[in-house]
Amino acid sequence: MPPFKTVAAYVPPGVGMLAVGIVTEVFGPHGAALPGFDFALCADRPGPVPTDHGVPLSVAHGLDRLADADLVIALPGAEFRTPPDPAVLEALTTAHGRGSVVAAHCVGAFALAAAGLLDGRRATTHWRFAELLADRHPEVMVEPDALYIDEGSVVTGAGAAAGFDLCVHLLRREHGASLANAVARDMVLPSHREGGQAQYLAAPVPGDGQDERLAEVLGWAREHLHEPLPVTELARRALMSKRSFTRRFTAATGTTPHAWLRSLRLLRAEELLETTNLPIEEIARRVGYASAAVLREQFVRRRGVPPRSYRRAFTSAP
What we know:
Elements: E1 6-10, H1 17-27, E2 38-42, E3 47-49, E4 57-59, H2 63-68, E5 71-74, H3 86-97, E6 101-105, H4 109-114, E7 122-123, H5 130-136, E8 141-142, E9 148-150, E10 154-157, H6 162-175, H7 177-186, H8 209-223, H9 231-237, H10 242-253, H11 257-275, H12 280-286, H13 292-303, H14 307-314
Parallel strand pairs: 1-2, 1-5, 5-6, 6-10, 7-8
Antiparallel strand pairs: 3-4, 9-10
Helix pairs in contact: 1-6, 6-7, 9-10, 12-13
């Protein structure tokens, strides 16, 4: 299937306005500099739909638009414990059957599970309701800690702001790092968090001078990816021991320093592959790998394709 062009988000009764805002901002217009999508909000029937804030949302499209979209996203609603109307389930299965990517944000995963689209697959949802999803649908392999889980034609994401991570992941997967990064910049949000990163962090907001130093070190590391960046050097710059730095880093980011750096290097490599004619060897050097062979090994392991294949698929350079 070619990358998605049409996007439809299912708006259930009691829909979360945060979720509506996220999908509208990501897939809505971003000005002439960025390509847009044919985006629509869809409900059981056109008209006003109640929201979690008590203000009705006017939805112009019904389920027919849902079944015809290239990408379908089930949004969370207040009545997620009750299975959707059979017509909704049919629209979801019809879209998936014709090759569309079907995704769910937060408790929207319950609609996908009710449609049978998560059977035998890994899935996630808001951590608070993961146990309920697992109890109701034992055929689904629920992973309560993940931000999002990509199973190819079916993708599920956690709650609240993780909807942004889900949507940008889909942009990156289908349209490349350059567009995903540009949309994230337009929204003044981080461009990428790994799907396996923890949903809940014990200390997500900096609380003292050590965390301020940590933030400064992370900013410095982003500007020095071409250097080796051992954890001992990062800890030294943060004025911490290696053990304290690693513990503080994991508490603040939900991942390890090694995993964070690897993700950052690969993201930068993706962007360089898409937007420049630089040789693979030079790209490897700029993102901190010893050789093109090392970059290739990491790229194949983490992205499933070698760098040259990625460049052919996404590049805007000759």
